[in-house]
Amino acid sequence: MWPLLAGLVLLHAALYNGFPLVTSDTGTYLVSALELKVPIDRPVTYGLFVRFTSLWGWSVWGAVFGQCLLLGVLLLRYIREFAPRLTHPAGRLALLVLAMWATGVSWFSSQLMPDIFTAIGMLALGLVLLGRCRSGWEVGGWLGVAFGAELCHSSNLVSFNLLVLVMGLVAWLTSATGPTWLPRRRWALTLAVTLAGWLALPTLHAALGGGFTIVRASPAFLIARLSESGVLERFLDHECQGPATYSLCKYRDKLPEDAMGFMWGTNTPMQLAGGMEATRDEYRTIISRILCSPRYYPALAWTATQATLRQLTHVGLGDGLGQYRENTAPFWPMRAFPYELKTYLSSMQNHGQLEFGQLSERVGLAYLLAVVAGLGGLASRAARQRLGPGAVTWLVLVGTALVVNAFATGAVANVYDRLQARMAWLLPFTVLVLATELLLGYWATWRQLPATK
């Protein structure tokens, strides 16, 4: 019963809206779910999840409730593990409600989008890496969840593997001062699972007729990022002096200002050259030459660092949650759900009635306070001793997850609030759970003190 209630709590935003939240990308995922086609610019995995959880096109509510239920199980598990003094299930659910209100997590778990699976996968990996599984079957189960989540978004292939590698490094460095908390065998198993995603996703796409590739449009995304960072202009300035064969040479002084404009703007160099498929070979050649040329390494390192740091500050809500009525990408596949089309069109989102100003301010404040409290807790010897090394390691894991996600999205793709806010809520949630355990510990100590006359 309690996991079901947790799932309903995390479904709050969809219930409030009157329909699951959608973005322009939702249309692509719905088409892949309905037609079993591999999108040119997205993995097919989330489309398969929607296909199964919507009961083969019966209701999209099944998809969002399925992901909310899975996330609710994970969050209740973390509360039980790291706030053991909060013994009653109702108390854990109340803490989850408070976390949902403070962090805005429901605005991601309620979307018909794979974004929430980044956090789901990170949490599942955390249970394994932190040694919180009680059996081999549970280890296998959570690794299976993490593996499926990894395949839902191409950036997860980068961030999940980086998380496991960095946590292995942290375990190795801390083993000099005491027994290791991450045995090599468990770490190697986890790394093997996350590395397998690089092979599994292209294999899945090939099996469905999409070719043995992670995302066919990945060269376009990378070129767009190189254009925004200025590295592409450096390359074109150097390569286009003579008789150049690159279609981009004629546009080197007219490149769009940002990656979003390069990918989705009108009359962009990519569109004028024929689109994503037509430019794929050329863009792959340019990317290969840039990555193999040391002259561009300082610029690549600097722009990647800058983008990662910028992405860490972009935690606002509401990105992409505009109106998508007739003749929009989500509307066309929604017609395959005729009994839900009216509720889709009558939702608050599709009437422009969702306001995110105050909510983003609250979430931003919670994020900032969590950063300060988290760093303060790590610096406080008393807090570390009372909470124990496991809690400290969990805090380090969450901080690492936020940084690697910022790198995988900001440095490799583009700086965008939605791509970081989908993960940023984990830090306030972690701090809230640990603060609850700390306060309950102080309360228990105070009650044990002898009464003064």
Automatic annotation (TrEMBL):
Keyword Transmembrane helix (UniProt): yes
Residue ranges crossing the lipid bilayer per the database entry: 57-79, 91-110, 116-133, 154-175, 187-215, 363-382, 394-416, 423-444
Keywords for the protein's UniProt record, in alphabetical order: Membrane, Transmembrane, Transmembrane helix
Protein's name in the database: Glycosyltransferase RgtA/B/C/D-like domain-containing protein
Lineage: Bacteria, Pseudomonadati, Bacteroidota, Cytophagia, Cytophagales
